[in-house]
Amino acid sequence: MQPSRDISRLLEIMAALRNPDGGCPWDLDQDFMSIRNYTIEEAYEVADAIERGNFDDLREELGDLLLQPVFHAQMAAEDGRFDFGDVVQSITEKLIRRHPHVFGEQAARDAGGAKARWDDVKEDERAQKAAKRDAAPSVLDDVPMVLPALARAEKLTKRAAKVGFDWPDVAAVLAKVTEELAELQAARTDKERHEEMGDLLFAITNLARHLNVDPEAALRDANAKFTRRFHYVEDRAKQDGIEMKDAGLERLDGYWNEIRAADKVGG
C-alpha cells in the first residue's frame, strides 16, 4: 500500500484498517459514538493551525480532519446505511441547491445577496426536515447541540434575531447583562447560582453578537492572554527564588501588574 493524492487510496486504507481479517484492532473497536469526539477535536486543531498561520500544520490537520468523514462513511457502509460516495453526492447536491445564483437562473449582485439566497434555501430545507418528522419548523432547528456553549448561544440568538426576537440596541443588552448580574448576586442556593450564571453568560454572549465580537474567539484570546501572563508570574517568582505557593497574593499580584503594564506599553 503506497501513499497517493487520490481520495480512493484513502478509502482503500480505511477499508483495510477496518477489515476483520488483518485490520487494526483499535480501528475495528471503534463506533460512531467513540469517534465523534475525535471529529470535533480534529476540527479544533484545523482552526488552531489557521490561527497560528502555520500552513504546514494546516495541511496535516486538514488530512486528519478528512479522515473523520472517511472513517464514519466506512462504518456506515459496513452497516449498509451509506458510503463515502453518498456523502459526496449529498454535499454536491446541497451546494448546487444553495447556490441558485451560480448554478441556476437566479442572480445575486453581491455577497449579501448570495447570503440571502443561501438563507432562503436553508429555511426551505428546515421546513422539509420538520415535515418529515411531522413537526412545525423552527428557526432554531439544526443548531447543533454539540457546539461549544458560547458558540451555540451566539447562533441561537442570531437565529432568533432574524424573526425580530432581539434587543433593539447595545444599551438594552447591557441593561440585560446588568440585570442578570444582579440576579446572580442575589442567588442563595447552588441551583439558583447555576441558573443565574447561565443566564448571565447567555446575556453576555448576546452582547458580544451586538458588538460584532465572536464570543468563542474572544474567550480563546483571553485564555491565551491569561496563560502568557501567568507564565510571566511563574518566571518572576522563580527569578526571585520564591515558590508560588509561598509568595503570597500581594507579591504575585505585583508580578501580574508588571506584565499588564508591559502589555499596555507594547500594545
Automatic annotation (TrEMBL):
InterPro entries: MazG-like_dom, NTP-PPase_MazG-like_C, NTP-PPase_MazG-like_N, NTP_PyrPHydrolase_MazG, PRib-ATP_PPHydrolase-like. Residues 114-133 are annotated as: Disordered. It is an enzyme of class 3 (hydrolase). It comes from the Bacteria. Keywords: Hydrolase. One of its GO terms (biological process) is dATP catabolic process. Its EC number is 3.6.1.8. Belongs to the nucleoside triphosphate pyrophosphohydrolase family. This is Nucleoside triphosphate pyrophosphohydrolase.
